[in-house]
Amino acid sequence: MMSNTKMSRSIFFAAVAVFLAGAISTGCGKSEDPDFKEQHTVNAAEQAKDEAEFRVYLQAAEQGSAEAQYRLGLLYSYGRGVKQSLEESAKWLEKAAEQGHVKAQVHLAIFCYESGFGVPQSYGKAAKWLKKAAEQGDAFAQYNYASHCENGKGVKKDLEEAVAWYRKAAEQDQNDAQVSLGKCLYRGIGVKQDFEEAAVWLRKAAESHRSEAQTLLGNMYQNGEGLPKDDEQAVYWYRKAADWGDSEAQYRLALYLLDGIGVPKNTAEAIRLLRVTAEKRYPGAKDKLKELADKGDTQAQKAFKEVEAEHKNDGISFGRR
Length: 321
Prior knowledge:
Among the domains are: about 55-135, Tetratricopeptide repeat domain (Serine Threonine Protein Phosphatase 5, Tetratricopeptide repeat, Alpha Horseshoe); about 135-210, Alpha Horseshoe (Serine Threonine Protein Phosphatase 5, Tetratricopeptide repeat). By secondary structure, it is mainly α. It is about 70% helix and about 0% strand.
């Protein structure tokens, strides 16, 4: 038996539907707008095109075409030309993947098994399909499989294997892999520590706007690790990463601006950056801001009070031990 509330809602939505249908048919409301008519026609045309595309791919997929099976999986995933079904999407992607379709293998691994969309989540199966795609030379798969190896996600943890796959992907200009390989070389994880080679890969990623690589490259210039010590270059890379919101880069740039090393001294900009990083609770930022405030800097005092108030509102006592 339908409850009174549910019945009322049903009657309401039915009435709205009738009203809208009548409004459109009688030419009142949005239907008088030529732009609305044009958009409605375009949408209808696109839907008809999607449905026709779906029928073509379905026929080819049922006949065994791996490419059609992959495309069909995507259409089901996005609900294009057919009612969305993540289960059907995973089914067709797996059929294509079993035939060696690289993109299907990657999609099945990342968006299905790793995320649990349309199939029970399984890091093991995700790693299995990533490895198959990686072995066929897909750089994105190589990077992701390397990450699974590094973290023991669905496979036995193997740092040397991770580095090997990061290198394969990095050599194909996969920027995330270049960052990861650079970090492994910098820290000696799964490979002998090598600052100079680390700098090579980090620079490639940094030039492609990867903020983590930019920050680490700044560290290396600041400390003279694998690169000549160069404060101006350190500031250059910290500033680039700071512009992307990297907290470490913002904090380190603030310290440079306070000291006027490698860059003209700019206390106001330094305090602004310290406030930003203090708000994000970056280690050391709150203490540095308080230090400046205690020395009588009015801008720092104002910034410290404002940040402290914000953190207290979050239920955190700020600047006290």
